Amino acid sequence: MAENIKAxxxxxxxxxxxxxxxxxxxxxxGTIIGLAIMIAVFSFLAPVAFPTVSNFVNVLNQAxxxxxxxGGLTVAVIVGELDLSIGFSASFLGVLVTGxxxxxxLPVPIAILAVLLVGAFIGFINGVIVTKxxxxxxxxxxxxxxxxxxxxxxxxxxxxxxxxxPDAFVNIALGRLWGVPHNVLxxxxxxxxxxxxxxxxxxxxxxxxxxxxxxxxxxxxIPVDRVKIIAFMICGACAALTGLLLASSLGSGTTSAADxxxxxxxxxxxxxxxxxxxxxxxxxxxxxxxxxxxxxxxGLAIFGAPTFYQYVFQGAILIVAVGxxxxxxxxxxx
Length: 334
Fold this sequence. Notes:
The chain has a two-stranded antiparallel sheet. It starts with a helix and ends with a helix. By secondary structure, it is mainly alpha-helical. α3 crosses α12, α8 (182-200) crosses α9 and α13 packs antiparallel against α14. The model is unreliable at 1-11 (pLDDT under 50). The chain has helices spanning 2-11, 15-45, 53-78, 86-104, 108-133, 137-156, 167-174, 182-200, 202-212, 214-219, 224-250, 261-273, 283-302, 308-332; strands at residues 176-177, 180-181. It has one domain (31-42, 51-332). β1 and β2 form a beta hairpin. Its main location: membrane. It is a multi-pass membrane protein. This is ABC transporter permease. Keywords: Cell inner membrane, Cell membrane, Membrane, Transmembrane, Transmembrane helix, Transport. The chain crosses the membrane at residues 29-50, 56-79, 86-104, 110-131, 138-157, 177-198, 227-248, 283-305, 311-332.
């Protein structure tokens, strides 16, 4: 035994140090490994139902809206802020788009454009409150989210708007192109745009710089407040798109339909920060995080697990996500 210890000391790699060396690897690739393990286990336990092309397309379709809203949230988080209003905004804007078509009689494209602009405007308001008034983003967006809930009930009286929704609007989410659901194609387009904006444009570089060090960014001439407002507007527009696509999928505007997307979006974003990069929030990582949640939900549904297991799974995933994100940042620190 003494010889083994001496040998370990001589090589400079004791069993303890070897264990420590594994932690940075897990912090960077643990989520991808976890996703692969989940797919392997579900495929082994349900070889007929789970590992099929149709089921994988179904998983992507189920994950598409969560990826869109989480992608927008990622931009806000990269800039160093949080937006707790996105779920409430998505619910309200899903009701609003149906109301504009059914009650006001607006054409489908005009109603969609109007709702996207409203979503961006909500993000603008959040950004102004945070940057110009100086309210913490958690408090600011929680407050605006609560106001939006009230506006939602005032607009719809709490009742779904279902009668008279145009078929052209419903077909946006329910239609398919080359066998691929429209929601999946829209999600791919949105994620591609967000990735290009964040990773390949000057505004994206400013967003990352502000999130890394706002004081240094301001001293270097970056308009920090404007950049943060733009990030909130992107987040709000993605929430609006999620809400209207959800309304299209349901064929109605329902008061609280998208409220649950808040928790899953944060879980996806924090899981994503522990994917491929050392604790950094990024668009591609968020996609992996959302896919982990979608695969988990799909597996639970295939095995007929009670609904409460979904809440347990989602809460546990959020805790694991924050833990892995913190671990990644710890080992990325010099």
